[in-house]
Amino acid sequence: MTVDFAGIKVDNVTLAKAIKKLEEFVAAGTPHLIVTPNPEMIVGSQDDAMLKQILNNADLRLPDGISMVVVSRILGKPLKERVSGIDFLLEATKDKKYKIFLLGSAEDVVKKAAEKLGAAGYHHGYFKEDQAVISEIKKVRPDILFAGLGGGRQEKWLAKYLKELNVPVCMGVGGSLDVVSGIKKRAPVWIQKLYIEWLYRLIMEPWRWKRQLALPKFLWYSFTRWKRRSKI
Ligand code: UDP
Fold first, then answer.
1. Å from CA of 3 to ligand 1 middle
2. CA-125 nearest atom, ligand 1
3. pLDDT tens-place string over residues 167-176
4. End-to-end Cα spacing for the chain
5. How many domains is the chain built from?
6. Which residues, 6+ apart, have CB-to-CB distance to 4 below 8 Å?
7. What is the pTM of this model?
8. Domain that holds residue 12
9. Whose CA is nearest to atom 3 of ligand 1?
10. Per-residue model confidence (pLDDT) at position 232
């Protein structure tokens, strides 16, 4: 089942179900794309037809925002839970069952993250030559490629090279590699439970305030663009 937010479809899955899907994708062996639409991406995709198409056509679309859960309840199509990219990444790599490749962040950051997760390969996210990076990834032949190049850009990069990379699962993880490496702290669980992780990020990274305007815009679009879109 999917839930629609201003024209972006999100799969109504739990973390456990998403991990099951991951298993199926890896077993199938053909390339799959996993995306994590959050309010910022949903707002960004309103004026970005390419991003919208990529998000809607991905093989799995995880609801990465507690505000999405709240809005879905108000709109009468409740999401089961928030499944964030970082929670999915940590769960998928927990028992080191899969061969993974990390792409993104600064060299020392991704190196640290790769050590922590036992990755088979890694590359920083400030490259100019796509092809050189692609051949490095292909050499490793990972089961999963986690790309943290920034929301929107990483999805476009992965979608563009999905077939060429031929990795069973490609997924955009935003700033997760910074958190895994330990250079950035995630909000404590009690703050996450109070639904105020956005406030924590605003205090810790005040320069992000402009990006956080996405939240009220997301609420506005979700309510005003809901009915019209769901009739299509
Ligand atoms: N990043 C990168 N290459 C770039 C720009 C950004 O690897 O050219 C990385 C950056 O180091 C950070 C990540 O992209 O780790 C995600 O940034 P963002 O703040 O967009 O995270 P999100 O809000 O999407 O979680």
1. 27
2. 7
3. 999 999 999 9
4. 16
5. 1
6. 10, 226, 229, 230
7. 0.94
8. 2-231
9. 125
10. 39
